């Protein structure tokens, strides 16, 4: 019997562990997808990378400041506030899901945690601090832990 459940995964770990890279690469393996980022500049950077990888005709950018929407895009790179919510896509990801706890923008991230889903896979990316919150709010979620393999050090002022 085929499992028809939509997969939901939380990829949790410290900064610089490749969570965003994993989500982008995973999205591009699907026919369609949306990723929401907390920052316009990050969305723009990822948009440019995706355009270079799959072509401008396949990738849309939607932020509060900018909209670039080709005729029939397969992938949408957005700020979390600008994520299309009525669109059916195979893959959905929300980056920096720990922003659910932010006093100003937390309600948007919480709404995405509770309501936005990909038809095949949904990924929430963020800090380990969110594990208990996500566990209490999202059923049937798989957790993936990312570890940092290099040491971060402070090199002082230049």
Automatic annotation (TrEMBL):
<keyword id="KW-0347">Helicase</keyword>
<protein>
    <recommendedName>
        <fullName>ATP-dependent RNA helicase SUV3 DEXQ-box helicase domain-containing protein</fullName>
    </recommendedName>
</protein>
<dbReference type="Pfam" id="PF22527">
    <property type="entry name" value="DEXQc_Suv3"/>
</dbReference>
<keyword id="KW-0067">ATP-binding</keyword>
<dbReference type="InterPro" id="IPR050699">
    <property type="entry name" value="RNA-DNA_Helicase"/>
</dbReference>
<dbReference type="GO" id="GO:0016787">
    <property type="term" value="F:hydrolase activity"/>
</dbReference>
<keyword id="KW-0547">Nucleotide-binding</keyword>
<dbReference type="InterPro" id="IPR055206">
    <property type="entry name" value="DEXQc_SUV3"/>
</dbReference>
<dbReference type="GO" id="GO:0004386">
    <property type="term" value="F:helicase activity"/>
</dbReference>
<keyword id="KW-0378">Hydrolase</keyword>
<dbReference type="InterPro" id="IPR027417">
    <property type="entry name" value="P-loop_NTPase"/>
</dbReference>
<dbReference type="GO" id="GO:0005524">
    <property type="term" value="F:ATP binding"/>
</dbReference>
<feature type="domain" description="ATP-dependent RNA helicase SUV3 DEXQ-box helicase">
    <location>
        <begin position="6"/>
        <end position="141"/>
    </location>
</feature>
